[in-house]
Amino acid sequence: MAFEEVCPERIDLIHKNYRKLCNLLIDVEEWGQVVIINMLTRYARTQFLSPNQNQESLLEESAEKAFYGSEEEDAKDAKAEAASLAKRKPYVMDPDHRLLLRNTKPLLQSRNAAVVMAVAQLYFHLAPKAEVGVIAKALVRLLRSHSEVQYVVLQNVATMSIKRRGMFEPYLKSFYIRSTDPTQIKILKLEVLTNLANETNISTILREFQTYIRSMDKDFVAATIQAIGRCATNIGKVRDTCLNGLVQLLSNRDELVVAESVVVIKKLLQMQPAQHSEIIKHMAKLTDNIQVPMARASILWLIGEYCEHVPKIAPDVLRKMAKSFTNEEDIVKLQVINLAAKLYLTNSKQSKLLTQYVLNLAKYDQNYDIRDRARFIRQLIVPTEKSGALNKYAKKLFLAQKPAPILESSFKDRDHFQLGSLSHLLNAKAVGYQELPDWPDEAPDPSVRNVEVPEWTKCTSREKRKEKVEKPFYSDSEGESGPTESADSEPESVSKESGSSSSLGSSSSGSEEEEEEEEGSSGEQSEDKEEEEKRTKRKKEGSRKAAPGSTGSPSEEEEEEGVKKAKKKALQGKKSCAETSSEEASTSESSSSGSDSGSEAEAKRRKAPPSSRAGPKEISLLDLDDFTLAPPQPVPSSSIVSTSLVTDLEGLTLTDTSLAPALLSPAFSTVRTYELLHRMAGEGLSVEYCFSRQPFPGDPHMVAVQIQISNNTDAEVKSLRVSEPKPLSGMRIQEFPEIECLAPGDTASVVMGIDFCDSTQAANFQLRTHTRHFYVSIQPPVGELMAPVFMSENEFKKEQGKLTGMSEITEKLTLPEKCQSDHAIVQQVTSAANVGRVPCGADNEYRFAAKTVTSGSLVLITLERREGTAAQLTVNSEKMVIGTMLVKDIIQALAQ
Amino acid sequence: MIHSLFLINASGDIFLEKHWKSVVSRSVCDYFFEAQERASEAENVPPVIPTPHHYLLSVYRHKIFFVAVIQSEVPPLFVIEFLHRVVDTFQDYFGVCSEVMIKDNVVVVYEVLEEMLDNGFPLATESNILKELIKPPTILRTVVNTITGSTNVGDQLPTGQLSVVPWRRTGVKYTNNEAYFDVIEEIDAIIDKSGSTITAEIQGVIDACVKLTGMPDLTLSFMNPRLLDDVSFHPCVRFKRWESERILSFIPPDGNFRLLSYHVSAQNLVAIPVYVKHNISFRDSSSLGRFEITVGPKQTMGKTVEGVMVTSQMPKGVLNMTLTPSQGTHIFDPVTKLLSWDVGKINPQKLPSLKGSVSLQAGTSKPDENPTINLQFKIQQLAISGLKVNRLDMYGEKYKPFKGIKYMTKAGKFQVRT
Fold first, then answer.
1. What ipTM, to 2 d.p.?
2. CATH no. for residue B105?
3. Inside any domain, residue B1
4. What residues does the MHD domain cover (chain B) (predicted)?
5. Cβ neighbours of residue A760 under 8 Å, at least 6 residues apart?
6. A140-149, A220-229, A281-290, A543-552: range with lowest mean pLDDT
7. What long-range pairs does A431-435 form, CB within 8 A, spacing at least 24?
């Protein structure tokens, strides 16, 4: 705040603190958030390139798409959109820009309206168009608040809705007006409704307007009539309907309503006067009754302008008006003079005397404006010997074709003010308003924001104080926050990776960025933790060097390099099947989350397995919390993780399918692909599927099935989708989004979710293209119907104790030669079934645990090695059928 | 930022003023009075009024205008939100926020304002912290203060402000440990003439009253968290946990607070629990009109609809109404033309109705519109969206708390157009 007061223009002071500010934002108290967000908006406008430079056209539609559908889908869409956009154009969003957007997004959920508004304006000014949609929902929520808040929010929504109509269209009904709203709110809502009107929703909006016209609030009725006029001018289709409606209003009992309709009709008629002489006649009759000056003036102007269409009535009207001239209001008088002049020019025989009478009256009027006008017009139209050349052109002057007025929103010109600011609200520059700078043409050097690692510890005293006051509230839950943190950063890192490997080919940005991220994340930690952290880091650095199996150099950049190398290798191999792509996703996930997000907990977690091998010295460094949380395999327990993971999968396979890598992760080494549609049966279209073993985003009861579709024909395959799923009772299928077009030789990968109801029955459905449809079915192996759970040895024993008797199945088997090592056994079991390993004290026993996906019943597996090659397999599960089948499958897997 | 605050009552008297930076003359309020005059009703006063040297931002609550004076650019919502927070705090301290109450506790009011705003910037706005700084007035304390001449200002700095959980003070002790949660849902709807729903949405809040010893860490999970479409949380809720697992995990503030407010996604159809049959007509010839409304239950999931209250703003031309209700009481105010009918409980066997005639001003033409009917009702033990709390767990403390959850559905802005 001090910054804002003292030197708001010294942008360069923020550079060094930018990332810290972004990361701390969520923990700052709410009033500070508002100030910081506003400041960062201006900062970002000077430092980053506009994300919407060269894609005005394609975005309108994509923004549209992102709004429909559920929240998750929205987020997914937006992310995917962003990823694909980043690929399509050379523009790559600065990672710091992305950081800001990502860190402010949760603040939309704040209870403080000012914070929400601040984030909304930040998104509106900074985010790529496809992502702006997220703010609409939050803003609509604010409309429930106090009327003053509504007033301010609606003002801003009105401005936004002009520029981005699609954003608020799904929330159209939230702007419907209640009779209890204060008038100023009603008028603003009306403004928004008018802005949102388009060909599709105009009929509903007009129907609403019809009810509003009958309202008791006359100011509001007048505004409604104007709104109808604006709809009519903007949407040609309904112009006649609107006009008819307005003409009906002319017989309304309330004078204000009639007057307002006259004014609006006048504007509408100007667009197409020829067809509507009837209406003009009708309005001419109204001059007897209407007293509102504006309306009278409008009618007179209309008659004058189109006196040729109503040759009989016009002089009569002039006669009447001449009689009452002295009692009229000024604007009416001016229009009477105007009408007289026009009539004189077109029909001088009938109206010559009348005109002179009117002009004489006007000559002695009290108002100098009217006197001047009369003198001017007399000179112009009445030919005298003195009158000059202008006389000849009088007709042209008066009866020239006039362009129809354009009815515009009063909010049209407001968007140059920063939204949410006082100046925007008043549409005038307030004292101390800081102009929102334009996007720069060239991005300034991003490296100014890089901070040397030791530097950020000795931050300014102001920052220190802030940190002390606003220690993170979540320090006790770092374990949980870790994974989500990393998940958030993934899609972006992926797009960046793909971008850098495909188009830029430079790895420097990646490494640089990762360094910053590391600082950023540590900024989130509380101060006392920082010290400890550094120690950990240093130690880890040491341990990394010592750690066996690392690629020789300890830095994380190297790892990333490794991934890239692997990709290149795969490129040579030109292998592209779903199996490997999914693996790549999982490995890139782990590597990117580790190296990229740099979240401390994540890093620790990643280190956990090797550290247990490295020795007890390492364990002592880890928090107890983190340690217990650290699972042997990284298992995303949250739907968010998986959402972004799916996006990753899609993003990766869509962007560089040919780069299928050959990296194998031990846990998934034998993920099998199954054929859904052979290329012969599918007439060149081949479809394969595998079980990605990730929780399906959105529905935890569904098994995620990764589907790889490749087009081997030489024509494009269009609108590929699932149709007519015929699930057995209880089974549910979540179809993948339609693939609009698949070029020849291309491969697409999608994820669909199937709830198999814990049975191995096949799910049948049709796969449709624009020309054909194929009946296909997916049959899950029993091992895929479960998801791993993690439990301690004691928990495992306790649960096992409950599942004895009928639900216990025991089988003896012999282990073949190659399945003697621990590693091999674990690998075989985990490949046969999606289970997680449970730590076990005895070294001749292996335990695994999982839960069935649909019903969540536990499946516990114990494998006990006896002397020699003999072994005993025990499966405990409530679901006996699953248990039996699982025993069979595992034995088969082990025997191989 | 905020320079001064003026409190103006309904009759236009400035009964309290407070300046933080420099003293701004009272005459600045003249601009406000001007705007007030132009707007016929109190709600129509624009929240932001520019004057040559200042900007006046006002909120209107409890029949009091809170007018803040600012001098330079500041996000208007920032000020408005703060003013609302001030009103909430007063309400929290004194039970009701009225002119009388503020005048009675003028010392506390000044103390509180001084803490809430520091040189124009909001400082302590959490009511828990404020209450530690400045103790809320009680009868006993007032008596003691008058005798000893001491004030309500606490002599210790609040402990919460410096800890990691600023909303909770340390060392809370209760003999009965209890945590109550109220799930309250409001239906906002517009029903058109023929009884079909034009728009309907459900907004809900979870208000909590938590009285637990020590530093409990609570988690609240829902049976169907996917219903919640748009949520906003109390700052104590761990956002990341919600994002990843859809579980509310938080260290609660002490006492009453609003845990979260939510919006049920628009895709879900909203069950409208009541219907209104109406027959309102004004005849052109005579100065009499007919008026008849009946209220009945629709989709109530077997619960009784209580606390039904029907209000309707009659057109200006209505002189009086002679009505007979089948149950409850009704009042028609001939000045404001407001009809209100307190129905009470709806008995499905015998539907409540209100019948009678309307007398219109003689000579005037019939009003061209029918009045809209506003409805209020309550349904206990039902969350209309179907939201259900699954379980509440406590970590970090040894004792067993008493837990309770209450559901309620209310009408929000429920309007029937006729």
1. 0.87
2. 3.30.450.60
3. yes
4. 176-417
5. A779, A780, A781, A782, A785, A885
6. A543-552
7. A431/B71, A431/B72, A431/B73, A432/B71, A432/B72, A432/B73, A433/B72, A433/B73, A434/A8, A434/A9, A434/A42, A434/B73
What count of residues does chain A have?
896
Q: What average pLDDT does chain B have?
A: 83
Average pLDDT over residues B106-129: 82
Q: For residue A637, what pLDDT is reported?
A: 41
CA distance A37 to chain B (A): 11
Q: pTM for the complete prediction?
A: 0.60
Whether B165 is covered by a domain: the verdict is no
Cβ of A457: how many Cβ atoms within 10 Å?
Answer: 12
Higher local confidence (pLDDT), B27 or A492: B27
Pairing of strands B402-416, B178-191: parallel
User: Is residue B348 within 8 angstroms of chain A, CB to CB?
Assistant: no
Residues B305 and B256 in one domain: no
Residue B234 and residue B334 share a domain: no
Q: Is residue B168 part of a domain?
A: no
Which domain does B204 fall in, by range? 176-268+381-414
Specify the range with the lowest mean pLDDT, choosing from A533-537, B24-28, B84-88. A533-537
B138 and B25 within one domain:
yes
Do B356 and B304 share a structural domain?
yes
Q: Are residues B341 and B262 in the same domain?
A: no
Residues A200-227 have pLDDT tens digits of: 888 888 888 888 887 777 788 888 888 8
Q: What is the DSSP letter of A501?
A: I
pLDDT tens digits for A708-765? Answer: 888 877 777 777 777 766 666 677 787 777 777 777 778 888 888 888 877 777 778 8
Residue B244: its chain A contacts at CB < 8 A? 480, 483-484, 487, 637-641
pLDDT per position as a tens digit, A617-630: 444 443 333 333 33
Closest partner residue to B44 among A118, A173, A182, by Cβ? A182
* CATH code for position B219: 2.60.40.1170
Write out the two tokens for A45. 């406008």
Is it the case that residue A607 has pLDDT exceeding 80?
Answer: no
Residues of chain B found within 8 Å of residue A641, distances taken between Cβ atoms: 244
- 63-122 of A, contacting B, C-beta below 8 A: 70-71, 106, 109-114, 116-118
Tokens at B387, concatenated: 């939201």
| Predicted pLDDT of residue B184 | 92
Q: Three-class SS of residue B160?
A: helix
Q: Is residue B153 part of a domain?
A: no
Structural domains of chain B, count: 3
**Range with lowest mean pLDDT among A272-286, A382-396, A580-594, B33-47:** A580-594
Angle CA(A688)–CA(A691)–CA(A692) in degrees, nearest 5? 110
Token pair recorded at residue A120: 């909304």
Tell whether B129 and B253 lie within a shared domain: no
Determine, for residues B58 and A430 on separate chains, whether the beta-carbon distance falls below 8 Å: no
DSSP A151-183: HHHHHHHHHHHHH-HHHHGGGGGGG---TTS-H
Decide if pLDDT at A477 tops 70: no
pLDDT at position A442:
65
How far is residue A418's CA from residue B77's CA, in Å, rounded to a whole number? 14
In chain B, which residues have their Cβ closer than 8 Å to the Cβ of A141? Answer: 230, 232, 263
Whether B314 and B238 map to the same domain: the answer is no
| C-alpha dist (Å) from residue A269 to A255, A283, A301, A335, A378 | 20, 12, 12, 17, 29
Query: Same structural domain for residues B311 and B365?
Result: yes
Q: Tell the burial category of A29 from Cβ atoms under 10 Å away from its Cβ (0-12, 13-18, 19+).
A: middle
DSSP conformation letters of A395-443: HHHHS---PPPPP--TTGGGGGSPTTSHHHHHTSPPTTPPPPPPPPSSP
The answer to whether the Cβ–Cβ distance between A474 and B240 falls below 8 Å is yes
